[in-house]
């Protein structure tokens, strides 16, 4: 591993802009790192070596010509394989899209290219973002760089593992029920779910349209802020995009200070099912916030206890509708089309072969919940609970600036441990789901290692909608204090692959 792969994204961009190093050198160092370790980690599904080097050469040419480079120009990035990328395979971790090469870029992909970010390739993920461990990928699981026998979180485990194994300093994930924050927590990295609509969903393959949100993944709070700023903003191609200025996230990340802030501790995010080491690290984080000058307030949000049940009615219902487009008639896999079968038979055979067990489970659950006679009892009731959760957040934010909790109830569990127990798997997102249902902003950042297993623990910070800058203000202050206390970033304690 070279020094170039250990630099932060901000420092990498500074060195490229000053001519201290070239974008090509940086790209080649990271591509060499991918080649050296990804056979063990399996973070990437596709590495676009030529595309990455072409972008890097363009950045170097701009600098040589005296052009001013952007804040992330030449910085490598790992892109979750749910964003369409022109000329590069996009599989969403599914056999049903194996080999599909999109003819257009997602808005996030386009904005990354406009920012001269070097996209190294597409990362592994749970199929159609349905999972909490990346074990549901049709192309095999990803390992957690802290312990390759453990999960790296999901659905964006490939992106988080690429960061933690120093294959890329930046990554993009998507968060439907916690799929950015949960992987960040278990790999000792930073992950942010922006306000719903803050980052365009155009070209992001849909799982649950009212919940899905793309966002930044990084190794530091400042790096996440720089990436957030690059991809955020209104997009007329996305009807759910918020037409408002992007919050001042970079400024907040550069000036983290919690003095005078009121921080709410959610009482419902504790108790049975929470690992002792996770709660110990969380308690230390709360005390650290107090030491830094924040006022700590205990907050009760009773409807949060119903969030998991509501989510697993709303998300499958929306997925059953969104995945109806994969019918073997327009794109992707086609099975059984030998001229003797009807279109319906070909569609059924294709879905049987192309979708994995978890996707089929959620389609069936969602179709049932939306069926005649059950819509009001299930989907309609879940939406009412969603309203109650949103109101709990609104009441909480009347008295506090942000809320905090553990990001996940436990550290990374062994690969295969929960494969036959969907409910145990779903519980991994217990703390993250409420923010998706309400649409507000949330972040996970490292707060130490659990004493039982030496694995990372995440601190979750939750802010009101369009107050994403508060996440970075609090996150930067906590990160700086922890780094001072530890004497180094947490990832420096990770085993070297």
UniProtKB/TrEMBL annotation:
The Gene Ontology terms for molecular function here are: ATP binding; glutaminyl-tRNA synthase (glutamine-hydrolyzing) activity
Q: Which GO terms describe its cellular component?
A: glutamyl-tRNA(Gln) amidotransferase complex
Which reaction is the catalytic activity of this chain?
L-glutamyl-tRNA(Gln) + L-glutamine + ATP + H2O = L-glutaminyl-tRNA(Gln) + L-glutamate + ADP + phosphate + H(+)
> Does the entry feature the keyword Nucleotide-binding, yes or no?
yes
The protein's UniProt keywords, in alphabetical order, are:
ATP-binding, Ligase, Nucleotide-binding, Protein biosynthesis
KW ATP-binding (keyword) present: yes
Record EC number = 6.3.5.7
Q: Start and end of every Amidase domain? A: 25-471
Annotated active site residues, numbered on this chain, are: 80, 155, 179
Task: Return the InterPro entries for the record.
Answer: Amidase (IPR000120), Amidase_CS (IPR020556), Amidase_dom (IPR023631), AS_sf (IPR036928), GatA (IPR004412)
List the GO biological process terms. translation
For this protein, the record's Pfam families field holds: Amidase
Q: What class of enzyme is it?
A: ligase
Q: How does it assemble?
A: Heterotrimer of A, B and C subunits.
Function text = Allows the formation of correctly charged Gln-tRNA(Gln) through the transamidation of misacylated Glu-tRNA(Gln) in organisms which lack glutaminyl-tRNA synthetase. The reaction takes place in the presence of glutamine and ATP through an activated gamma-phospho-Glu-tRNA(Gln).
* Family stated for the protein in its record: Belongs to the amidase family. GatA subfamily.
Name of the protein in its database record: Glutamyl-tRNA(Gln) amidotransferase subunit A
Q: Which organism is it from?
A: Streptomyces chumphonensis
